[in-house]
């Protein structure tokens, strides 16, 4: 009787805990394309192509290395459509002595897995996912008794733990822990960042593209051109290009936005990291090496490392600490439906339409677009967390609930009431104008505050502040904003509120069938 080892779509790592230490002659590896996973939200077409193609390539690599892989395709006869159903069928086929699985990234899937020991006659072993630096227990210990879960404090622990950018006497390299103040350069005219490598679809990917075109035609997003890395070799090439060509300027221009440029100096590696094709710690070590070799400045390298061992690990810890409640949190009582233009891109707001365009074309938008354009809009307009969660989870190729949900509900919407962020990331048009070239050619005027043609972010900002005064005024990081509001005369205030309300009333909410099958 063999051991049945499961490998899920975001576990495409040769050193996965459940694969380590197994021998080829008594192991059957089960991989399954299932309808439930492909439709629990209606994922962007390229996201499904990415996962299925990467899964099929991974299975082929394992077979070439001598492993026995039982791969269930979406259209295979008898495919039950769920992980639980497919494991049950595989148990019948292979009569294993045990099922081994690395814990799931998402709470929803982990709940299902935890029922398996009672459901199935054979032993089920669930192993911790040590592709993350910080275990669930370690994060819990760190969080315990802390009044606020400040990312920066967690990040310093991770720096100490890994020794990344630490001097021999235990001090941060360069003297500071964090160089964020040097990472806020607005874009320069005629910036021309080196192109990010795109990968020509091979036969396997083309077959998946055809499948997705057929079965998921009503899902959001362009199916082609598809150029994401789908093997660890391709992902390695993408990483190599980042370290050779773009990391140097990653830091300074991390927050800059340019119309038509989705990549800027970002690594574009999240899709590969999250499905297991790249090892996050290895990437950080290579970034550190670039600093030691004098190829990239400290603010770029520290910034990159902080995103990975800081934010990425913190977000994952935060998710498991606050699930399942985080999913339904709505502390600002936001009730408005997501505007239809999030799916169609049809809006005169040039910043939003460009971010939605890149989302549709590439299943990607960079961090500051997700946070300060799309996210800021959802916060200010009071869009309900459920709609916003569904949108972000569906449209980005790197989206899994463990990373999407804290970023959406806690970071952008403040729906957790401030457990993650010390204040809402609310901003008027001024911020977007400073950090981008969007406003220059927008139909709206960023310098106009109220009335016809005013940038909607301006009145929405005050509408948001005014309607949440009770909750936010006592927050020492934003309390002073209310003195500015109070200094305005009543007519000006009313102008802001009326302009915002008129804009909000003009929004058409999206039909729910964009995000989920009825
Ligand atoms: P880079 O800018 O090159 O950053 C390097 C790496 O750092 C990323 O690849 C990623 O692994 C990590 N990272 C950076 N910021 C974060 C963060 N806030 N949380 C977790 N990891 C981070 N990232 C996802 O991977 N999946 C998501 O579903 C996702 N949803 C997001 C939703 C919102 C509302 C916001 C504000 C951010 C979200 N992010 C998400 C974080 C971030 O926007 C993406 O990781 C990043 O844009 C990916 O592009 P990149 O690889 O070029 O990143
Ligand atoms: C995102 C995704 C999709 C679209 N399809 C599958 C699939 O058919 N089979 C699979 O194993 N994984 C898929 N995934 C990734 C899973 O959703 C991801 O592994 C879980 O959410 C992790 O908890
Ligand atoms: Fe966006 Fe306002 Fe600038 Fe237009 S003017 S691009 S809506 S911030």
UniProtKB/TrEMBL annotation:
Pfam family, one: DPRP
Ranges annotated as spanning the membrane: none
Region Disordered, residue ranges: 166-199
Biased composition regions of type Basic and acidic residues, renumbered to the chain: 168-191
InterPro entries in the cross-refs: Crypto/Photolyase_FAD-like_sf (IPR036134), PhrB-like (IPR007357), Rossmann-like_a/b/a_fold (IPR014729), UV-DNA_repair_photolyase (IPR052551)
Top-rank taxon, per record: Bacteria
The protein's name: Cryptochrome/photolyase family protein
Source species of the chain: Erythrobacter rubeus
């Amino acid at each position: 009787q063999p051991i049945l080892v499961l490998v899920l779509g975001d576990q495409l790592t040769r050193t996965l805990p459940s694969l380590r230490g197994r021998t080829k002659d008594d192991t059957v590896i089960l991989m399954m394309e299932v309808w439930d996973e492909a439709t629990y939200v209606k994922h962007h077409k390229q996201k499904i192509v990415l996962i299925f193609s990467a899964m099929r390539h991974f299975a082929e690599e394992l077979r070439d290395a001598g492993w026995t892989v039982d791969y269930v395709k979406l259209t295979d006869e008898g495919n039950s459509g769920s992980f639980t159903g497919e494991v049950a069928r595989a148990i019948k086929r292979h009569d294993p002595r045990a099922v081994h699985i690395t814990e799931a990234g998402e709470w929803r899937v982990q709940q299902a897995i935890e029922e398996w020991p009672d459901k199935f006659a054979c032993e089920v072993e669930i192993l911790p996912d040590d592709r993350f630096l910080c275990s669930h227990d370690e994060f819990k210990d760190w969080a315990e008794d802390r009044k606020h879960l400040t990312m920066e404090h967690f990040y310093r622990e991770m720096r100490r733990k890994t020794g990344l950018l630490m001097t021999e006497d235990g001090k941060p390299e360069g003297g500071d822990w964090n160089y964020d103040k040097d990472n806020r350069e607005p874009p320069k005219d005629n910036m021309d960042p080196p192109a990010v490598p795109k990968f020509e679809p091979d036969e396997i990917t083309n077959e998946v593209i055809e499948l997705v075109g057929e079965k998921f035609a009503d899902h959001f997003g362009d199916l082609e051109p598809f150029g994401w890395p789908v093997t660890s070799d391709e992902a390695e090439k993408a990483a190599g290009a980042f370290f050779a060509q773009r990391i140097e300027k990653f830091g300074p221009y991390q927050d800059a936005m340019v119309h038509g440029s989705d990549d800027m100096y970002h690594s574009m590696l999240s899709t590969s990291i999250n499905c297991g094709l790249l090892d996050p710690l290895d990437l950080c070590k290579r970034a550190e090496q670039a600093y030691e070799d004098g190829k990239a400045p400290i603010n770029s390298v520290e910034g990159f490392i902080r995103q990975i061992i800081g934010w990425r690990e913190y977000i994952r810890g935060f998710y498991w600490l606050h699930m399942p409640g985080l999913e339904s949190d709505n502390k600002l009582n936001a009730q408005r439906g997501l505007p239809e233009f999030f799916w169609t891109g049809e809006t005169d707001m040039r910043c939003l339409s460009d971010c939605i365009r890149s989302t549709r074309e590439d299943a990607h938008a960079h961090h500051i677009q997700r946070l300060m354009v799309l996210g800021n809009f959802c916060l200010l307009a009071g869009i309900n967390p459920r709609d916003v969660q569904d949108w972000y989870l569906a449209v980005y190729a790197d989206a899994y609930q463990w990373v999407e949900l804290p970023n959406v509900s806690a970071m952008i919407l403040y729906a957790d009431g401030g457990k993650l962020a010390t204040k809402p990331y609310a901003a008027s048009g001024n911020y977007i104008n400073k950090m981008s070239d969007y406003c220059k050619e927008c139909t709206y005027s960023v310098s106009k505050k109220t009335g016809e043609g005013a940038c909607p972010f301006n009145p929405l900002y005050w509408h948001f502040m005014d309607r949440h005064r009770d909750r936010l005024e006592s927050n020492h990081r934003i309390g002073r904003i209310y003195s500015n509001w109070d200094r305005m005369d009543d007519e000006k205030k009313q102008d802001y509120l009326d302009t915002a309300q008129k804009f909000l009333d003009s929004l058409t909410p999206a039909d729910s069938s964009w995000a989920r099958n009825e």
